[in-house]
Design a protein that fits this description.
Layout (H helix, E strand, L loop, with lengths): L1 H5 L33 E6 L2 E2 L3 E2 L5 H12 L3 E6 L6 H4 L9 E5 L6 E2 L4 E10 L19 E4 L3 H8 L7 E3 L10 H10 L5 E5 H10 L4 E5 L12 E8 L4 H13 L1 H10 L4 E2 L5 E3 L5
Parallel strand pairs: 1-4, 8-9, 8-10
Antiparallel strand pairs: 2-3, 5-12, 6-12, 7-10, 7-11, 7-12, 13-14
Helix pairs in contact: 2-8
Length: about 290
C-alpha cells in the first residue's frame, strides 16, 4: 500500500494534477541520451502487491507491462523490491530497472508517461446500509467509526472535519508479503468493526470482487473551493527524468493500446473515471 501511494516520491498526494499530455516532439531532443538496454523492458515492482503486481505475474500492472513489452518487441524482466519508502531511489534511479508502473501523474520525482488510467478514493459501506453522501463534511458522518489508511488524502479530510475520535487507522507502510492494510480495512468493514471505509479504488474494487465482500461504495468527492486534497488521480509509468525519449516512446505505445489496457483494468474491477471525474466503468461481478 505504501509504495503504491508514495512511490512517486511525494508524501502529499493532494498535489494538483499537472498537464496530462506526453512530452511533445519539441521537448524531446533528437539525440536524447538513454541508458535503457536495447531489447529489454526492465520493470521494478513489488513482489506481493496485488492487485498491482506479484512475482507470479498475476497483477494488472504485470499484464500491462507484458502488453507494452510485446508492442515494443522487448523482452520483459523484473527487479523485485519490497514496498518501502525510497522505492524509486533504490531501483529506477540506480538503473536496476527502466520503468516503474503505477506512478501518480502529479509526481515530480520521475518523468511520467501519458496516464493509462484515472481512478479515485472510495467511500465504502456494508450492503444494505445507506451511504449518506459523498462528502465527509456531511454531519451524518460524525460519531461514526471510520477506517482510513494514515497519510492518505482521505485521512486529511477525516482530521479536517473532526471525525478522528472514532477513526480506526491502518498503516500506510507495510510489508505486503505478510500484511495488506488496504485489504484488511475491507474485511473489518464487512465484519462490522467499522461503519465506513475510505480506500483507494483499484485496491477496493479488486478485493470486494475477489473476496466476495458484501460491500458497496460511492466515489469519495473533494471540495476544491474549501482547499481539500485531491481524491482522484491519473496513473502513469515513471521513468528517469533524464530520458525524455524513453518516456515519449512509452507514451506512444500506451496511447496506441489504450483500449486493451482498459480491458485489463476492467477485468480487475478497477473503478475508471473520465476526464470530468465521472465513473465510466465498474463491475462487482465475482
Amino acid at each position: 500500500m505504501g509504495r503504491r501511494l508514495l512511490r512517486a516520491g511525494v508524501l502529499g498526494l493532494a498535489a494538483a494534477l499537472g498537464p496530462l499530455a506526453r512530452p511533445s516532439r519539441a521537448q524531446v531532443p533528437p539525440n536524447a541520451p538513454s541508458l535503457v538496454p536495447p531489447g529489454l523492458f526492465r520493470v521494478c515492482a513489488g513482489p506481493a502487491d496485488m492487485p498491482f503486481s506479484d512475482q507470479k505475474g498475476q497483477g494488472f500492472e504485470n499484464r500491462v507491462a507484458a502488453l507494452v513489452a510485446r508492442a515494443m518487441h522487448r523482452r520483459l524482466s523484473y527487479v523485485w523490491y519490497p514496498e518501502s519508502p525510497g522505492f524509486v531511489r533504490q531501483t529506477l534511479m540506480k538503473y536496476l530497472c527502466d520503468v516503474v508502473p503505477g506512478v501518480f501523474q502529479s509526481s515530480n520525482a520521475t518523468q511520467n508517461t501519458d496516464p493509462y488510467y484515472h481512478s479515485a478514493y472510495l467511500l465504502i459501506a456494508r450492503d444494505g446500509e445507506q451511504i449518506p453522501g459523498d462528502l465527509l463534511s456531511n454531519p451524518a458522518f460524525r460519531g461514526k467509526r471510520i477506517g482510513v489508511v494514515g497519510g492518505t488524502p482521505p485521512a486529511t479530510l477525516v482530521a479536517k472535519y473532526g471525525l478522528a475520535a472514532k477513526v480506526l487507522g491502518y498503516a500506510l507502510f507495510a510489508d505486503t508479503r505478510y500484511f495488506k492494510p488496504a485489504r484488511q480495512i475491507l474485511f473489518d468493514l464487512a465484519k462490522g468493526k467499522i461503519d465506513y471505509a475510505l480506500d483507494w479504488g483499484p485496491i477496493a474494487g479488486y478485493y470486494i470482487a475477489k473476496d466476495h465482500l458484501p460491500l458497496h461504495w460511492v466515489l469519495l468527492r473533494d471540495h476544491p473551493a474549501a482547499g481539500e486534497p485531491r481524491l482522484d488521480f491519473y496513473v502513469s509509468m515513471g521513468v528517469r527524468p533524464s530520458e525524455p525519449r524513453w518516456a515519449y516512446d512509452l507514451s506512444k505505445v500506451i496511447d496506441a493500446h489504450r483500449a486493451e489496457i482498459t480491458r485489463i483494468l476492467e477485468s480487475y474491477h478497477v473503478p475508471l473515471l473520465d476526464a470530468q471525474g465521472n465513473l465510466i466503468h465498474y463491475s462487482k461481478q465475482k
